[in-house]
Amino acid sequence: MLKLARQGVYWTIQGEGALVGEPMVFIRLAGCSVGCPSCDTNYAFWRECSEVEVAAECLEQRHANNRARYAWVTGGEPTDQDLEPLMAALWSAGFIPCLATSGIRPVSADWGWVSVSPHSPDFWLRRGDEIKVVPMLNGLDVAAIDFSSTSFRHQYVQPMAGNRESLAFCLDWVRQNHDWTFSPQCHKSWGLP
Length: 193
Fold this sequence. Notes:
Layout: E1 2-13, E2 23-29, E3 46-49, H1 51-65, E4 70-74, H2 84-92, E5 96-101, E6 113-116, E7 127-133, E8 151-157, H3 164-176, E9 181-182, H4 186-190
Helix pairs in contact: 1-2
């Protein structure tokens, strides 16, 4: 059984990274061992669901909204739960399962997309489809991270919403690091979850 956050399963438009603008179904899991002070997930309310039930809810969302190739598993920290059965259920339902993680532990290579957003310099998962770092979020010092052992197809730096110092850092970072791209959190300006 999975623990779903109050937001649960919902259709939206991806607002960050390489898949920005892509319609998809989000699955927001409850619980997190990372413990970020500025977490945007409400853990006071959650429900248990089987992986098959979650996949069925994803299909309902795709049917109601007429489009979604991707199912984006996020949290909290999704890897705190056993995700193998969910990933298999999503593939079986015809979705490309995507995982958004802080990179605190290894994940299966069978995910259709892996997005890592480290919350500390010593994150474990050093490979994936994209890395998105948010300078100053929870005190993250991006300059202190050793990226030499990482391998991501896309590398993004994102400013904290409404934080001018974080924005200035991001702009300077992309000027000095030509293999990094600036990625705003578009969904926040769109008013989407």
